[in-house]
Specification:
The complex is a heterodimer of chains A (about 375) and B (about 140). By secondary structure, chain A is α/β, with parallel strands linked by helices. In chain A, strand 10 (about 360-370) and strand 11 (about 375-380) form a beta hairpin. Chain A has helices at about 25-40, 60-70, 85-95, 140-155, 160-175, 190-195, 220-225, 255-270, 285-295, 305, 325-330, 335-350, and strands at about 10-15, 50-55, 75, 105-110, 195-200, 200, 210-220, 230-240, 275-280, 360-370, 375-380. In chain A, strands 3-2-4-7-1-8-11-10-9 form a 9-stranded mixed beta sheet, with helices on both faces. A two-stranded antiparallel sheet of chain A has the order 5-6. Chain B is mainly beta and about 140 residues long. Chain B has 1 helix and 8 strands. In chain B, the strands form 2 sheets. In chain B, strands 6-5-4-7-8 form a 5-stranded antiparallel beta sheet. In chain B, strands 2-1-3 form a 3-stranded antiparallel beta sheet. The chains are: A alpha/beta (about 375), B mainly beta (about 140).
Chain lengths: ~375, ~140
């Protein structure tokens, strides 16, 4: 086990409960969630000496520290897409273990639903150098994932029927979450018959667009034991980046999860079979299949079989995205932080009807951009 | 040669010092990629150094324009002007016979007939007085 393993813990979490809220701004969500997460931990704003965020202006932590009245001595605005906040957990774990900060606050807020933001289908404007070789052709976020899904179908014969298992299982978890955006029953047939957004991906294979956000508070394992919540220890973390243009992705079916996952498992001294509950960023069905393979839960090309027969649904052998995920619960744009919040609540035993019995070790994984980045964190209720 | 379009609404590439040779080639109907004199790596898109070995000793290689569809998607939803009028359009990754993989639209056939592994050939269309854009057509 590595020097960071078990040295820090999550001691406070909060998720903004509403999915459609035209009365709130993104900055308000950051602020309200930060306050609630610190209160849950039994800490105050004056305890915070490390701050992490992404998705706010050009200098995210500078802007948010002004807005929140924070003056930390350690900040990190790492922006690698939706996985950023899982990456922040890793960076905070390292900073706490090495003494660079003691109380880390991570916040996120966005009002994509209220602002009618077309996250996956909006098309892209030119900004960076490499855009001149991609943007003239009409890339969309869903289109990038669709390139991988098309290739997956070609190489492994995965079909919409097989991918639909993920959408349907995730909806069943959402039905156990009163806050989830969509809770109506969903069948394989519903998914298969839904309209094509970017072939081969269909409507019910795409995450929802919601408002929302959240906050996570971390501190040292020592201090965590004196606080209000059962500490959830960080055992292993990893991150990886691979490309921003899809033409630079060496293998469309090997995503950064492979590198980030291997590192997280190595640092934790654990293997995929040790994971009892998994929260894996489900921007699209294909994201889940490629992540399951990349993280080592199954072999390359076997994820469609892995999720077959509702294995990831409530009561199934592999509890996955137990809050209803991005496919049914919420997706304000960068969902990574919710994987951490849900895993923490599962390990504390706070999930009521959605509780995975005796869950002691959880995995969180975020994917960012167009399969561009990955960040993994392995959490446990035991410091080991 | 196609004449310059009027009323073209899709994004027009921003050309800079690093990419100007590629776009000059496109004006002549040539598909250029870089080849590293240090390690032999061929790369697309152009860079000031070889992304594999970091040699700055690069030369331009004129490709045949022949390639194979590596993957593609038929885009049915994109609100951007220029694209929303052409749904579904084919957004594709093409493996050039010379090695590098490029992004382009496949035009000149039914979108529903595009398949992975299909052979395609480069074509260039003027979209502004300066820019001639790479596309591919089924062979």
């Amino acid at each position: 086990m590595a020097a960071i393993s078990g040295k820090s813990a999550i001691v406070g979490v909060n998720e903004y409960p509403k999915r459609r809220d035209p009365t709130v701004t993104a900055l308000q969500i950051h602020a309200l969630c930060a306050k609630a997460a610190l209160e849950e931990a039994g800490l105050t704003k004056d305890d915070v000496d490390g701050y992490f965020t992404s998705g706010v202006g050009g200098m995210p932590t500078v802007a948010m520290c002004e807005f929140l009245g924070l003056r930390p001595t350690y900040v990190d605005s790492t922006s690698i897409g939706g996985s950023s906040f899982v990456s922040h957990v890793g960076h905070a774990a390292g900073a706490i273990a090495s003494g660079l900060c003691n109380v880390a606050l991570i916040t996120y807020g966005s009002t994509s639903w209220s602002q009618l933001t077309a996250i996956g289908t909006g098309g892209r404007a030119q900004g960076d150098y490499w855009d001149q070789f991609e943007v003239p052709y009409g890339p969309t976020t869903v289109g990038s994932y669709a390139l991988a899904a098309q290739r997956y179908e070609h190489e492994f014969g995965g079909t919409v029927e097989k991918r639909a298992e993920v959408s349907v299982a995730t909806r069943k978890w959402a039905q156990l979450n009163p806050d989830a955006m969509f809770r109506e029953p969903l069948t394989i047939e519903d998914v298969v018959k839904s309209r094509v957004i970017s072939s081969p991906l269909r409507f019910f294979e795409c995450c929802v667009i919601s408002d929302g956000g959240g906050a996570v508070v971390m501190t040292s394992a020592e201090r965590a034991r004196d606080l209000k919540q059962k500490p959830v220890y960080i055992l292993g973390v990893g991150e990886a980046v691979s490309h921003t243009s899809m033409n630079q992705m060496a293998d469309l079916l090997t995503i950064p999860a492979k590198v980030s996952g291997e590192k997280a498992f190595r640092l934790a001294g654990l293997k995929p079979a040790d994971i009892q509950v998994a929260e894996i960023y489900d921007s699209y069905t294909i994201t889940v299949l490629l992540s399951l393979e990349g993280l080592g839960f199954c072999k390359r090309g076997e994820a469609a079989d892995f999720v077959k027969g509702q294995r990831t649904a409530p009561g199934g052998a592999f509890p996955l995205n137990t809050d209803g995920g991005g496919l049914s619960s919420n997706h304000p744009g960068m969902r990574g932080i919710f994987t951490v919040i849900e895993a923490t609540r599962q390990l504390r035993g706070q999930r009521g009807k959605a509780q995975v019995k005796d869950a002691k070790v959880a995995l969180c994984h975020g994917t960012g951009g167009s399969l561009s980045s990955g960040a993994t964190a392995i959490l446990s209720i035991e410091s080991r | 040669m196609t004449t310059p379009s009027t009323g073209y609404r899709k994004p027009i590439p921003y050309v800079d010092e690093v990419s100007k040779t590629y776009w000059k080639g496109a004006q002549r109907g040539e598909l250029l990629v870089q080849q590293c004199k240090g390690c032999g790596q061929r790369q697309f898109y152009p860079r000031p150094l070889c992304a594999k070995c970091w040699s700055t000793d690069l030369e331009w290689l004129r490709c045949s324009g022949q390639g194979t569809v590596h993957s593609f998607t038929l885009t049915y939803q994109n609100g951007q002007p220029g694209f929303r009028e052409e749904l579904p359009y084919v957004f594709a990754l093409i493996d050039l016979d010379e090695g590098p993989r490029v992004t382009a639209n496949i035009v000149g056939g039914k979108p529903e007939q595009v398949k992975i592994g299909m052979r395609v050939s480069a074509a260039f269309d003027w979209i502004s007085p300066e820019i001639r854009l790479l596309r591919f057509r089924p062979v």
